[in-house]
Automatic annotation (TrEMBL):
InterPro entries: DUF1573, Ig-like_fold. It comes from the Bacteria. This is DUF1573 domain-containing protein.
Amino acid sequence: MLSVVGSAVAADWSDSVFPIKSHEFGTVAVAAKTEFRFPVKNPYSQPMHIQTVRTSCGCTTGIVETEYVAPGETGSVMARFNTGTFRGKRGATLTVVIDKPFYAEARLVVNGYIRSDMVFHPGEIGFGKLNQGDTATQQSTVMYAGRNDWQVVDVVSNHSWLMPSFKQISRGSGRVDYQIGVTVREDAPEGYFQDEIIVITNDHSMPRVPLRVAGQVESLLNISPQSIALGGVKLGQPIVKRLVIRSQEPIMIESIECEGWECDFEKPTAPQKTFLLETTFTAVDATGSQRKPVVIKTSGPRSITAKALLTADIRDQ
């Protein structure tokens, strides 16, 4: 899986740099957006440069997403299955060429089956940006040509807050169209999501076909600073930091919590869009180097949360 030129140091690097070397796309429909990101880790003390990526088959496009990977960081190489122009069983080898801190080539493998009787339009259900606490619904159409008795029997999701649905919209002359809907519920977590729903049909050989779903859930709350650096502190030593919390609509702050820490603040008495909170952080059950999420929660029927990062070094008494 690896060829190295001109460096004995690089002789056995691939396992630490490429924790995943192969991916199976499974059965996918025509025009379905089908991609996989191979993580690229840099365990060295110098920056890593990904020069290029070559593919053995036009059915797959290789994309260098992170040209330079800093020491200790993780980048990625994207493998995009070209479902719009190829059909049937397909596979490709991606040759990743790295020229710094040494020259090396690693080979990554993808495989999949692009079925010609199913088409998703569009090939991905994309939500763009959503406000946390809101609901939204998007749709795709699956078009099938073949058996007269072909059916979609279910659509399933990996998350309770991602709710799929389906309904038949036409049937005749060996063609069937279904509308596939996905609703993002109000309890969707903050952050970027890229997942898939599984369309289950009555095909005996290939019943499960994935459809990608992606979007960005943005919190209504903005916390500053995002990184709360306390430096070196003793157990039980109170440290006061000012937090600025902004919202798109008037809110009430219900709680500020951080595992292993007491977080004390004077609760506001009226809803506002902007709060300046003098918050006292006291380590009560924390040791050593700390990187903990600080979770701020609002009250009311549309309770929302936002997070910042607390960093500290707990010293001995």
